[in-house]
Amino acid sequence: MTPDRFEPLDPVIHSQVRLAVLSVLIAVKEADFNYLKKETETTDGNLSTHLAKLEEAGYIRMKKSFRGKKPLTTCSIMEKGKTAFSLYLKALESYFPGGIKPV
Amino acid sequence: MTPDRFEPLDPVIHSQVRLAVLSVLIAVKEADFNYLKKETETTDGNLSTHLAKLEEAGYIRMKKSFRGKKPLTTCSIMEKGKTAFSLYLKALESYFPGGIKPV
DNA sequence: CAAAGTACTTTGTATTTCAAAGTAAATATA
DNA sequence: TATATTTACTTTGAAATACAAAGTACTTTG
Known about the structure:
2 copies of one chain form a homodimer. Chain A has 4 helices and 3 strands, in the order αβααββα. By secondary structure, chain A is an alpha+beta fold. The first copy, chain A, binds a DNA duplex (30 and 30 nucleotides) through helix 3 and strand 3.
C-alpha cells in the first residue's frame, strides 16, 4: 500500500477568503469584521458566510460586542483552526515537490 | 497605494484535482488519462472535466491517439501552464508568511 | 425628522464540482 | 457466435459552493 502522492486539501480551508482569514488570525490573534473585510478584499455578505463556515468547523471563534453603540464582531483562531492550517500547509507541500521555482 | 497583503489565487488552478494534474505534468512532461486518474484519485468524469478546463485555459495540451486499438489521451503542460503554476505558488506564499518549504 | 451610513445577515443566483449514466470500441466468456 | 464485460473516455444532471444584492437593525448626520 503505497502512500498517496498528493495529500487531500481540507475543503474548509481551501477557499481564498477562508485561507486569508486564517492567515490573518494566525498572525494577529484577534481581528474584527471590518479589518478582515479589508484584508480579504471581499464583500460583507461573502465574508459573513465564510466566517460562519469557519466557526461552524470550530476553526475560529466569533465574539459579538459593541464598540460604542455599534455592533462589533471579533474573530480569533482556535486550536483546531491552527492545527488545520498547519496540516493544510503540509498537504500543499505535496503538490510542490520542487519548492519554489522562478517564473 | 499599498500592495495587497494577499495575492489572488488563479481560479483555474485553485482546485485540488487541477493542482494535482499540473503538479504531475510539471514533473513528468507527459501523462496519460489513466495515470492522471490514479495520481489524482478522482473519477473518470471528474478528471475529464478538469482536464477540459485546463486545456481551455491553455495550460495543458491533450493529444488523442491510440495505444494498440484503444484510445489514448496524453496530456502535457504548456508554457502558459508552467507560468500560471509558478505564479500560483508565489501567490500562495503570501498566505504563509513562514513560507512553503520543499518536501 | 428624513436621509445616509455602519455593521452585519439572509437570500437568490451563478458558478463549480462531482459522479452516475452514456457512448463506442475492444476483449473475454459461454 | 452471440453476449457480457472491460476500457477509455464524455455528457449530463444534481449537489455543493461562492458571491453579491437586498434586507435588518441600528446610529449618525444634515
